[in-house]
Design goal:
Elements: H1 3-17, H2 22-43, H3 49-53, H4 57-69, H5 74-94, H6 120-129, H7 143-159, H8 163-167, E1 183-186, E2 192-195, H9 199-212, H10 232-246, H11 254-267, H12 272-279, H13 284-287, H14 289-293, H15 295-305
Antiparallel strand pairs: 1-2
Helix pairs in contact: 1-2, 2-5, 4-5, 6-7, 7-9, 7-11
Length: 310
């Protein structure tokens, strides 16, 4: 079996057994075709099954290095390596090829994208006015849903919560005026953290609860139209409608409010360790991404404060 025959057999298996989409088949097929083309030059001839089984980690590293020299990004090289690994594992399991030590090859680590935050005015507009879109024509909804959205997005921006963390809250967790206790949030990996809540956010939650009505402590804090826990897709749709109404950028999403919370704290002088605790990041390196977002603000502060910058 030649390498090309093996590639076609693998793609056929993906289509029949794994129900892979046409897009996936095209992408994986092209990645492995590129790998086989590299091997043809690297080995001096078209590889067959024995030649593929005799490959070593250094051969795959050479392929990745060649792709890097050709301009592939880290994310693209990681995708190509994933396709090649899947192809080689298939040959091992279904065609009797000797197993390769693929586990020792560490793929490129794609650079994390810089968080896209809203401006302070844009974030405040969402937190204060998102409920207003529900009183306009075709977007009209009950007052409870308008107050709910205002409270929810005020909480996302005011406390830096993930949308899943906010929607997981129950009535007993509701941060209300007169109670200065920090909000207990269960984040990723079931890790708990305490987050302070601003008076304005507590007031928005209280307004929503007056519209919502009383309930048992274990009931969801944020309810959907049918009385169940609010679906994240519904919250995202509400913000999408407000985004169009208010002329906000396309990256104005629930998670952008969390990014805005961190970015605006950093710009106001908060230290990274404190922001890390508030966001519930396991690693400080994750929080450090926000320093790139606020680079312009930090430069302005330097120019204002440093004696030699005047």
């Amino acid at each position: 079996m030649t390498g090309e025959q093996a590639r076609l057999a693998w793609l056929d298996w993906l289509a029949r057994e794994r129900r892979a989409s046409g897009h996936t088949l095209d992408a994986y097929g092209a990645d492995v075709a590129g790998f086989l083309g590299f091997l043809t030059q690297h080995l001096g001839g078209e590889p067959d099954l024995p030649a593929l089984g005799a490959l070593r980690p250094a051969d795959l590293r050479s392929f990745l290095a060649e792709r890097a020299a050709a301009g592939d990004s880290a994310a693209t090289r990681a995708r190509r390596l994933s396709a090649v690994r899947g192809f080689m594992r298939h040959l091992t399991r279904h065609h009797g090829m000797a197993a390769l030590p693929l586990g020792v090859i560490r793929g490129p680590r794609p650079k994390q994208p810089i968080p896209r935050a809203l401006t302070p005015d844009q974030a405040r507009a969402v937190a204060r006015e998102v409920g207003e879109v529900h009183s306009l024509g075709r977007h009209e909804k009950p007052a409870m849903q308008a107050a709910r959205d205002t409270a929810l997005f005020a909480l996302l921006y005011g406390a830096g919560l993930r949308i899943a963390e906010a929607l997981a809250l129950n009535l007993r967790d509701a941060p209300l005026p007169g109670n200065e206790a920090a909000l207990r949030v269960v984040g990723k990996g079931s890790k708990e953290r305490l987050v302070p809540v601003l008076p304005a956010v507590r007031a928005a939650v209280a307004t929503y609860l007056r519209e919502r009505g009383a309930g048992d402590a274990d009931e969801p804090l944020f309810l959907g139209a049918r009385g169940a826990r609010l679906d994240p897709a519904v919250a995202q749709k509400s913000l999408r409608e407000f985004r169009r109404f208010a002329g906000l950028p396309e990256h104005a999403t629930p998670h952008a409010l969390r990014h805005s919370f961190a970015t605006h704290l950093l710009g106001a002088g908060a230290d990274l360790r404190s922001i890390q605790e508030l966001l519930g990041h396991a690693s400080l390196s994750t929080t450090q991404r926000y320093t790139a977002v606020d680079a312009a603000g930090l430069l302005a502060t330097w120019k204002k404060a440093h004696p030699r910058a005047r």
